[in-house]
Write a structure and sequence with these properties.
Layout lengths: L1 H4 L3 H19 L16 E10 L14 E15 L3 E28 L3 E7 L8 E8 L6 E30 L5 E14 L11 E14 L4 E13 L10 E13 L1
Antiparallel strand pairs: 1-2, 1-10, 2-3, 3-4, 3-6, 5-6, 6-7, 7-8, 8-9, 9-10
Length: about 260
C-alpha cells in the first residue's frame, strides 16, 4: 500500500510544477481592459478660425439691415468638467481682423415741375435699405415757382470698415465626449473697436458684442479636430452714442483645433 503512494523525485517534481501552473492561472488572471472608448477631449485647446455672415436683419435685438461681417481670429479653451455626458470648457476668442460692411444710401430726385429733371447722389449708411418714395412740393419765395416731384431713397454701393474684437468671457459645452462627432453649444461676450462708427454715422466706434451658437465638433485624432458652428451674433454700443440701431448677424464659423 505504501509503495503505491510513494512518489519518485521525477514524478513529484512534475506534479509540483503542474500545481504551481494551476495556482498561477487561477490567481494571476489577466487584467480586465476597459471596453468603453476613451474620451475625445483636450485639457487645453487652441484654435484658428474664420467666420462670415453675408447679411443682417432684425433677428432679435438689432435693426440695421444688409450688414456683412467677417472675423478672422484665434481661440483658447480650458477644460473644466469632463464626464461621459458633457465636456464643459472656458472659452475665449481674439479677433485681430474684423471687417464690417455697411450699404450706402442712394437718393434719386425726380422733378416733374416746372420742368422734368433727375439727379442722384450717395450718402451715409441708412438703418434699412427698404426703398422709400417721398413726394415733395416747394415754392420759391422769390419767383413763386412751384417745384414738385418725388425723392426715392434706396441703397447702392458699400463701405468696408476695419476693426478688431475680443471675447474674453465665454463657454463651450460638448456633449457625448466619448464620440468623435460631438454636438456643442457655446456663447461669448466682449467688445469690438472699429476705425469708423458702425453701423451708421451717428453710432459709435466702440461696441459691445455677444453671441450664442450651436454646432458640431469632429475629432480626427485625440488632439486635433474641426468645429463647424452657426451663431447668433449681436453688436451694440449700449446707448453710449447718439444712435444705436444694433446689428444682428447669423454667423457661420469654422475652427481648426489642436492641443492636449
Amino acid at each position: 500500500m505504501f509503495e503505491k503512494l510513494y512518489l519518485t523525485p521525477r514524478t513529484g517534481f512534475i506534479r509540483l510544477i503542474s500545481v504551481l501552473v494551476l495556482i498561477a492561472g487561477a490567481t494571476a488572471s489577466p487584467a480586465q481592459s476597459d471596453s468603453r472608448p476613451a474620451f475625445y477631449s483636450r485639457r487645453n485647446t487652441f484654435g484658428v478660425f474664420g467666420a462670415y455672415s453675408n447679411d443682417s436683419s432684425h433677428i432679435l435685438l438689432g435693426d440695421a439691415e444688409n450688414r456683412k461681417l467677417l472675423n478672422l481670429g484665434v481661440s483658447y479653451n480650458r477644460r473644466l468638467i469632463l464626464n461621459r455626458i458633457i465636456n464643459f470648457q472656458y472659452s475665449a476668442e481674439l479677433m485681430p481682423v474684423v471687417l464690417e460692411s455697411d450699404p450706402l444710401s442712394l437718393f434719386v430726385q425726380n422733378q416733374t415741375s416746372p420742368t422734368a429733371a433727375s439727379d442722384s447722389f450717395s450718402s451715409s449708411p441708412p438703418v434699412s435699405c427698404s426703398p422709400e418714395t417721398i413726394p415733395y412740393s416747394t415754392v420759391d419765395p422769390v419767383t413763386g415757382t412751384v417745384y414738385s416731384g418725388t425723392l426715392v431713397i434706396s441703397c447702392r454701393g458699400r463701405r468696408w470698415v476695419v476693426g478688431q474684437a475680443m471675447s474674453p468671457a465665454g463657454f463651450q459645452v460638448n456633449f457625448l465626449p466619448r464620440r468623435k462627432f460631438q454636438p456643442l453649444l457655446d456663447g461669448h461676450g466682449g467688445y469690438m473697436y472699429s476705425t469708423q462708427a458702425i453701423p451708421v454715422d451717428g453710432a459709435g466706434s466702440f461696441n459691445f458684442t455677444f453671441d450664442v451658437g450651436a454646432g458640431l465638433e469632429l475629432y480626427r485624432t485625440k488632439t486635433r479636430s474641426f468645429r463647424v458652428e452657426y451663431r447668433y451674433h449681436h453688436i451694440s454700443n449700449n446707448n453710449t452714442a447718439a444712435m444705436n440701431p444694433g446689428i444682428d448677424n447669423g454667423l457661420f464659423q469654422v475652427t481648426y483645433c489642436f492641443g492636449r
